[in-house]
Every structure is written in structure tokens, then in C-alpha cells.
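WARN no homologs supplied; continuing
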Amino acid sequence: MAFTAITGQRQIKMRFAAEAKRRGSGAYMISGPVGSGKRLIAEEFAKALMCNDAGQNGACGVCANCKYFDNFTTPDVTRVYEPAETKQVKVDFIKDNVVAESYLKPQFARTKVFIIDFDYLGVESQNALLKSLEEPRKDVVFILTSSNTDSVLDTVMSRVTEIKLDPYSDDELEEIVKANCPELEDEKIKTAVYNSGRIPGKAIELAKEDSGVSIRHEVNSIMIAMPGSSYIDVLEDYCEVLTGFKDDAKVVASSFLMFFDDVARLINYPDCRKLNNETDREAIENFVAMNKHITTRKLGRCSEAVNTFLRALEVNSNFDSSASAMLLRIHEELKK
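OK structure emitted
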């Protein structure tokens, strides 16, 4: 695979292809959310550095070093990913397999590469790398990745060139999902992309499990019942449903917002031909017809309750209490 096989990140791919042709030493930190494709890009950059004939698209894919790389048989690449038995990589492993190895010449390729996922490195392990990062051999390249650079030591960040992944467009995300889920219907692909937070890994996960559709259906069911519900219904039954989706808080939030958007569309344009939730159209149309007291202004305040819920989670507020507060505010607006 060359850089052309990776969707998106055009400028970053061009830069790494040029760096691979230059073959200088250095240390790079590829940063982006979990599931954004950091490891895929790091691997392809490493392969380009190994390649005997790297070009503007990265590795050639056919030379001996490319084949060694693909078969995981080259001694010139060291990968440090999540450990099998511990939460973090032990400092002794870093000293023996990275620091010590970084002083040795490459055996086959012209460059020796270390790919290290910093999400699994504690303070002690990071400190052990400082000298190696600051003064690498002329034929050594460190490719580091992190989903949260705030947890990376400042002394490490000062020694690396940070490469932040660019946001993916909807078209790019749909292309990525289609490549991984070729049998999936277009509507479900678009739903997965919409709920993914623009993260490819999340979009693929939602598409494969179809969990985005499931969450939306549960949220729609809650909202349709909301006007006639009691406080007990809200605090016990509905909160319990949302708690089951706490790992997908952004999907939950977007599902609420899509419901409010559909209701607003039908209030303003009863014959609206396109809804976010086409599969639940009849139920949502009945909801609008049975609840004439609901206005777009009320829906706007409901949407603000959802955004408040998201902001609370960003500062690590408790999911259950934040979800309860959101549901109570929505209930107050929509109850009969």
C-alpha cells in the first residue's frame, strides 16, 4: 500500500513522502483522536522510509525492504503499541528495545525506524526516551503517535515535530466506510458518518455494528413518549436507557439533535420530503400532529440542553447526572 491508498490527509501524506525521499533523521509526533488513522499513517510513513525506491506516493511496495516490512520480518523497524499484560509499556522495555537499539546501525534499510504509541507510555518511560529523541543517529527516525498530547511530557513535545491530523470531510469518511463495509446501504453509511464526530474509526465501528441506528431509534422512542411522561419516567426509565449508551455520548447527543431537527422541519414544512430519521417518519409525524403545543422555540431550548450536556462531559462531569439534567430540561419544555 502507498499513501494513495489512504483516504484524506493530503498535505500530511505529501510531507511524509518528501521526508521519506530526503531520509534525514528526526522525531515526529502524529496527533489526533482515537480512531483518526494515526497508526495507519505512521505505518505507511515507516514503510516509505524503509523502501529502496520511495517516490512522491511513498513506498513502492515491491522492493525487498517493502516486502520485509509487510511481513514484519525487518529488524530495522521497532513497533511499541499496547502491551499485552499491562496497562502501560514498562520502562525496561523502552530502555532495552528502543533506547539501546537506537544507537545501532540499520541492518538492511538505510533508515532505522521506531513507531511508538505514546498513549501507552507513562512518565518514566517517556523520560527514558528524551536523549534518544533529542540527538538521534543520522539514520534513525522516531514516529510517535498520541491521542492526547496533554499527557505527553513538555520535554518530549519540545524534541519532536508535531503533525496534527486534519479533519476528514463527509465524502472522505463515506469513502472510508464503504471500503470497510462494502455491502452496507448508503443511508446507513451516511448515518454512521453523521454520528462519528468525523473520526474514521468511529464511523467504521458504527457502520459495522449499526449501533448509530439503534441509538437513534431508542432516543426517538424516548422523545415520542416524553410529552406524556412523568418525572419518575424520566429519572428512572429514560436515564437507565441512556446509561447503556454512555460510551457513545456524542452519538446520543446527535440523535437528540436530529430528532429536534426533524420535528422542526415538520412543524414548518408538513410535507417535508427528507428527514434525518426516515425509518421513524410516521412516528415523528404523529408526534408533531399530537403535540401542537411544541414550538420551534421550545425545540431550540431542548437543543441547548443537549449542548449543555456535551459541554459538561467535556469537563469530565458525571454522565448519569448530566444526562438526567438534560432529560429534565427537555421534559420541562415538551410536557403537556
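The chain has a mean pLDDT of 90.
OK
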